[in-house]
Design a protein that fits this description.
The structure holds two protein chains of two kinds. Chain A is 32% helix and 24% strand. Chain A has helices at 47-54, 77-84, 104-114, 121-134, 151-163, 181-198, 209-215, 233-238, 243-250, 291-295, 314-318, and strands spanning 3-16, 19-32, 36-40, 62-67, 70-71, 87-90, 169-173, 201-206, 218-223, 226-232, 301-304, 307-309. Chain A starts with a strand and ends with a helix. By secondary structure, chain B is an alpha/beta fold. Helix content of chain B is 29%, strand content 24%. The N and C termini of chain B lie far apart (49 Å). Classes of the chains: A alpha/beta, B alpha/beta.
Chain lengths: 320, 330
């Protein structure tokens, strides 16, 4: 397996009236070609910002992004234009991420025009129809507008647009969270089929843990801008080591009877990401919190081979 | 009061919307009963008519375009659909309270949360403003918010806290029946767990019944005693939690369960339901689910099946009832 993406100590701070907002703070990870990295966390944990910074939709504050062996941390406008061909995004809300004044074929075909991919009009039309077929849109929708279609079909348009340039890498930001379960399953299956057929690499951002388990190879759990735990999917769902991941996974409502439900209830809510203190950011809600947690920020450690956790007390809590 | 006393009885309720010249049958001959202290989960996808059904219980379906065309909603023996607005006001908020889906938009942004809680208390009880506000403070503490935040405005609270305020408003007058429309959909899972836990606790303490509208079968399994599944304005299956989760099945319910990614097992591929929910103005003939159903036969296209009682209390509306719920093919 070859490495497609490597992110080192990536930071994204936003300047606000009351101070610096640490949206993504010192996050490092690697994604192998053809694999899916799931990024989970609750609203405000910085997962969407992370996806955007990786794609240079937002400039990073500091840190390094290596894509296909090339450092793309500070791309020139021309090289960024080239990069976009290879890295695309599927957005969360299929209602607001499509231009209401463009028809389905115009939306899907726009990247082809920008990159001057097609030589003739006929070739262009064929490519568009081909793309529509790939994502399961009937060609009779060619001239319809997004508002005439339901959420599932609209999300297919978004995926079609992302695929138009034949990218290697797609960041999917909550692509199914606005959809009903029966439609959600259709889109997830489509995305998996596309990955198998084209060898795509995904970063899959979601708050839905059942979805992320279903689609990811590796999972990274974020809390308030920081990565608190990262390991492969199987390991994470069998042995969570960070207290936040434990609580998060225990809180998934399971559609089953006679389960022993050991919900770990957390106290309170997210603290402020603006000028956070030098401490564990989860400490105010943590059931295991001790003095060290409020006085020093924990660093990410490889506790078990391949299993990274940022917690001072990880060994005590898990009896390692 | 005995447990199996019928608190709410909906019989053959029909609610239609007239949009332009089209008729939308949002709720189509729906019958439901809710007993004292029971929690009924009403499950269905977008546009199935769940919210319209809930609104029609309180007589707050927007009219026009909506209208209760036929049927009755009996609450403790009184048909609410026959009452005037003035008479209904005695029930709304006091006997039957509603928790709306979106905590961001269902609070008034220019009133403090305290004022919004005391408003409902004062409306239904002959007490002074001072008494009402001290009751409101108690309610805040009850839902886990410090009473010192009485004078804060909604925008100063997070989503989970706002939903707690809404729960406080709903429970302020000790309602017998609580209607909760997707109360946790807009919340994160750990906050959702806190809110569900709180609702469960308060409901048990106060002995009220609840109609919980949701699209999340996981939430249903956590909190409900019985379940009704809606599709295109009709109830296609209802019964106890165990009947619906483990008994015979309507193909739509089977599809819903199979499309859920399961965190406890490794399914390679999800079994989705083919197609889309029907256009509500042009519902198909026969069974409303037949164009998406893989067990569809000729009779399904011609005739709409009745909701029949397969076992005591377990109703299914289908010509080709499926034997087990989880028919997952590997």
């Amino acid at each position: 397996m070859s490495l497609l993406l490597e992110v080192n100590r990536l930071k994204k701070y936003f300047s606000t009236a009351s101070g610096m907002l640490h949206a993504v703070d010192d996050v490092s990870f690697k994604v192998e070609r053809g694999k899916t990295l799931g990024v989970v966390g609750e609203s405000g944990c910085g997962k969407s910002t992370l996806g955007r910074v990786v794609l240079h939709l937002l400039p990073a504050t500091s840190g390094q992004i290596i894509f296909n062996g090339k450092d793309i941390s500070n791309p020139s406008p021309a090289s960024l234009h080239e990069l976009r061909r290879n890295m695309q995004m599927v957005f969360q809300d299929p209602f607001s991420s499509l231009n209401p004044r463009q028809s389905v074929s115009e939306i899907i075909g726009e990247p082809l025009l920008i990159y001057k991919i097609c030589k003739t009009k006929k070739e262009y039309q064929e490519r568009v129809i081909d793309l529509m077929k790939t994502v399961g849109l009937d060609s009779r929708y060619e001239n319809t507008y997004p508002h005439e279609l339901d959420g599932g079909r609209r999300q297919r348009i978004g995926i079609g647009r992302a695929l138009a340039l034949n990218p290697e890498f797609i960041v999917c930001d909550e692509p199914v969270s606005a959809l009903d379960v029966s439609i959600q399953a259709q889109i997830l299956n489509l995305m998996q089929d596309l990955q198998d057929a084209r060898g795509l690499t995904y970063i899959f951002i979601t708050h839905n843990l059942s979805v992320v388990k279903h689609i990811s190879d590796d999972i990274m759990v974020m809390y308030l801008g920081e990565m608190v735990e990262k390991t492969n999917t199987k390991e994470l769902f069998s042995t969570q080591l960070h207290p936040y991941s434990k609580a998060l996974l225990s809180a998934i409502p399971r559609a089953k009877l006679d389960l022993k439900r050991n919900h770990i209830l957390l106290r309170g809510e997210l603290s402020s990401p603006i000028e956070p203190p030098d401490a564990c950011r989860f400490a105010p809600r943590c059931n295991y919190c001790e003095d060290i947690c409020t006085s020093r920020r924990p660093s990410l450690e490889e506790v078990i081979p391949g299993h990274f956790v940022a917690c001072h007390l990880v060994r005590e809590i898990n009896g390692l | 009061m005995q447990m199996n006393h019928e608190l709410l009885k909906i019989t053959d309720l029909e609610v239609f919307y007239t949009v332009d010249d089209d008729l939308v049958r949002a709720v189509n001959k729906v019958s439901l009963t809710l007993r004292d202290k029971e929690t009924l989960g009403l499950v269905g996808e977008t546009g199935a008519g769940k919210t319209t059904l809930a609104l029609s219980i309180l007589g707050i379906v927007p009219n026009p375009p909506g209208k209760i065309v036929a049927g009755s909603v009996e609450y403790q023996g009184v048909d609410l659909t026959k009452l005037s607005d003035k008479q209904l006001r005695r029930y709304r908020g006091k006997e039957i309270a509603m928790i709306f889906q979106d905590p961001m938009t269902s609070l008034n942004p220019v009133l403090t949360v305290g004022e919004q809680i005391s408003e409902v208390i004062k409306l239904h009880n002959k007490i002074s403003l001072f008494e009402a506000s001290s009751r409101a403070k108690e309610m805040l503490e009850l839902v886990g918010i410090q009473s010192s935040r009485y004078g804060d405005y909604p925008h100063e609270f997070s989503g989970g806290m706002k939903q707690r305020v809404i729960i406080a408003i709903a429970l302020a007058c000790n309602p017998q029946l609580l209607i909760a429309d997707e109360p946790t959909t807009a919340l994160d899972v750990t906050i959702q767990m806190q809110v569900l836990d709180l609702m469960n606790k308060l409901k048990t303490e106060r002995g009220s019944a609840m109609l919980l509208i949701t699209h999340d079968l996981g939430v249903v399994a956590e909190v409900c005693d019985s379940v009704a599944i809606m599709y295109a304005g009709e109830i296609v299956e209802r019964g106890s939690l165990r009947d619906v989760f483990e008994g015979e099945s309507h193909p739509y319910k089977l599809g819903l369960f199979n499309s859920l990614p399961d965190v406890d097992s490794d399914t390679e591929r999800l079994e989705s339901i083919a197609g889309l929910a029907p256009n509500p103005t042009k519902l198909p003939d026969g069974c409303k689910f037949h164009p998406r159903c893989k067990y569809c036969t000729e009779v399904c296209m011609a005739k709409n099946p009745e909701l029949i009682e397969r076992e005591t209390g377990h109703f299914i509306k289908c010509w080709n009832i499926q034997p087990v719920k989880r028919g997952k093919t590997v």
